[in-house]
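Case study.
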Amino acid sequence: MNVSVKRILILTAELIMLVLMFLIIIGPMMSLFIWSIAHRWYWPNTLPQEVGFEYWKQALGMHTSLAIGAISIVPAFLLSLLIAVVVVIISMLIAIPAGYALAKYRIPFGAFIMFLFLMPNAFPQQPIFVNLLGTFTRLGLSGTVQGVILIHILVGLVFGVWITSATFKSIPSYLEEAAHSVGAGSLYTFFHITLPLAAPGLLASSVFVFITSLDEFTGTFFIGLPFVNTLPMTLYSSSGYNMQFASVIAIILLIPSILFMTLIQRVLRAEYVGGMG
Amino acid sequence: MDQVAVQAKQVVRREVFLPPYLLLLLPAVTFMLLMYGYPFLSSITRSFINSQGQFSFENYQKTVDLYLKDIGFTFAVTVFSTAVSAVLAILLAVYLRLRQSALSRALTGLYKIPIFIPFVVVAQMMTTFLAPHGLLNLTLAKLGIIDIKHPLQLFNFYGLTFGFVWKMIPFSILIIHGGFQMIDNSYIEAARSCGAGLMRVITRVLIPMNRSSILVALVLVYSQIVGTFTLPYMLIGGKIPTTITVDIAHRINYFRDFGVANTLGVFSYLLVLATAVYYLKSSVRKVTGSQASER
Amino acid sequence: MPTLHLERIVKKYGKVKAVDDLSLEVRDGELLTLLGPSGCGKTTVLRCVSGFVRPDSGEIYLGDRKITEIPPQKRGIGLVFQNYALWPHMTVFENLAFGLQIKKLYKNEISQKVGRALALVQLEGFGDRYPRQLSGGQQQRVALARALVLEPEILLLDEPLSNLDALLREQMRFEIAQIHKHAGITTIYVTHDQTEAMVISDRIAVLEKGRTMQLGTPLEIYSKPANKFVAGFMGTTNFIHGKVTSVDNEYVVVTTDDGVTLTGRGRELKKGDEVDVAIRPESIKFLSPAEAKTTPHEPNLYEAEVVRASYVGELIDYQLKIKNHLIRAKGEVRTPHGAGERIVIKLDPDQLAVLCR
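After joint prediction, the assembly is written out as follows.
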């Protein structure tokens, strides 16, 4: 009797904890979702009086309205997308050779390079953006898309190099030696043996850099204002006075992030995954 | 063969060619030096330069006068959030390690969600959720726990902590649970067979054997919170007290005061100095250690 | 086909000399095994020959070509890796064809050569499979085929069988020996397994601490070990320490401290030398009581006490005591002796090696 009573107690405790966690995790997300479809919501009602997809339609440019801050976010979305694509291409072009070098060669000043790429994780990044603002202003890069792209590359490169380096390390060197032993040169081996085997990890790295750029806020805030309007910037600026609109944008930002990250989560180690945001 | 010829044959080879990794690393290292190394150094040097362009401690004086409270606030939020996250993450990770039930499996899928949500979105979520008439307050009022005319004011230390903890616990669980997974069942069973109860297994076996993961999680959470701008900016904004990151933004946006802004930056560096040193040292050791064992 | 010639190879890792002034010649068409315990330098030597390790000093010649400075891809050497190193994203056919495509051969020529190589290792029809679909033994054979398909001047095998289970290993030994005979290619084989070495090799080089301890045929190495290390490495050996009391051509008489006299074969020894006498367990003959009576004054006849007798299936493993010496012996199952029994044993002088200390 005692044993099964204990079991029921444990199960009940587990259930309560699960429900609690569910509410805590889902709660804020529900809040977002409800706001995005609320037309009229005045307290003390727990739920909005009127719901609809009006704000969604406004955001997606399907409907113009005179409500404050109701604009189409399509331009901002496309800009974010464009920036992200450019950032991924440039970042990967830089990160893949660097990752390969770090993985395959013993580098005399390797510790220093590691240091350089680890520091952004160890120290706050905001002062970096602040000082780059000064430099960029002098160079005429502040408030430009190019400036924002450079910032996003900075943020993404750190992860890019680590993930590509880990990917290349996981390819045993004897596979490359075997290629040499049958007459393949270094470049031929890289493209026919190393790259195909590294492809999944490199793809994961690209997706990570892409999402990081899409969601990037702090750097864009300092360098991009007031002209560069990425999706996160639009979210921030509408958050002050149009909660519904801001919530719509938040959900739009949320979906690709969760989608892609759950897909590549299996390929990445925990410490990289947590570096988001 | 005579002596000279034999010795000539014994010439030791030396590497005369340019190592290939140099070219491969050049773009990445150059980029980082220019875009990170240089601004990092100038963030420190510029804190010592006053508005006339001379070396002085003026900025530090000004910062202490204006922002000492905020620096303390930042430290308090960070330590508190880190501690809460760590304790809860450890408990949950222990639960996930020891219990294999349908419910624990459901939790494993559930807890990971906040990890993939960017801070911008988290900030927006918390702004709606924690508002005086936000979902939390409305629900609590519906349940009769609070009076809707006096809702919980959460755009402050408590709301900020909630936001940080919400985002950081899943990340911590990921790392700490990963560490627990590596502890073989035999260690737990050995302790049980010596008569250890649950608490003793947790405190004398699981947690000590997982020290490194717990430390890594602590370090990463701590330094992430100190450096976060988005959440405090959207949740608390310019109210007093606020975080260093918000103050830096105000200093730049309203006063173009790079001197004090950088000084605040240096203070944030000081706040993370201990964790940063630990993180850098242990990471470098881990990689050079694995390199040495490759031979 | 040309021979391989290693001249005074030295390779240091930090302060440790992995290869210590080693010179070696591999004859045309032979299978030479580098045999030794882990850390003896055999793998380093192989990697110097294949080009993945550059020796600090010394030269390597393939025929009359000096190949010491030539990168691995241009050496024309076939290499079989310990873990097969089959490319997982390519089929068996593609694995074999890879090197041929680099040589820019025509498609039908490639197909032909791949087909022949697969037939040589008895894997016809496996061309479309992926490495993960093959067993360990099959993967090993594909690795061998991949090395052979390019018809290299010399074939190197780096402990190819160590990842297989014992039964498969025994089988594959014979197959490799056969394939070698069929292909007639000069081969260097690296292993730590002395039985393996003896089965397949034409000659064996026993290595320790980067130096050659002995170079010779399997028979020479086993029955006439040059020193204690080689004797001890090849199978179980008993060592009895003593002083040389007389030398008669190749026969040496050794006396121990407690008065046991042994006669064995040794070279370059003189009276008074400190020596070890190496006695193989299987060379110890047990005499029946009748035989013991009729052979009173032959050398190497001893009274011994059985300390331990362990039944091991096909024979009995004994520990015997002669005066103060404990030695291991092997005996037939049908004439067992129990612990505590006193028996008479005889050692054949020709099978005892007297080694200088």
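Observations recorded in class. The interface with chain C takes residues 9-13, 295 of chain B (CB under 8 Å). Chain B has one domain: 58-283. We will return to this complex in the next lecture.
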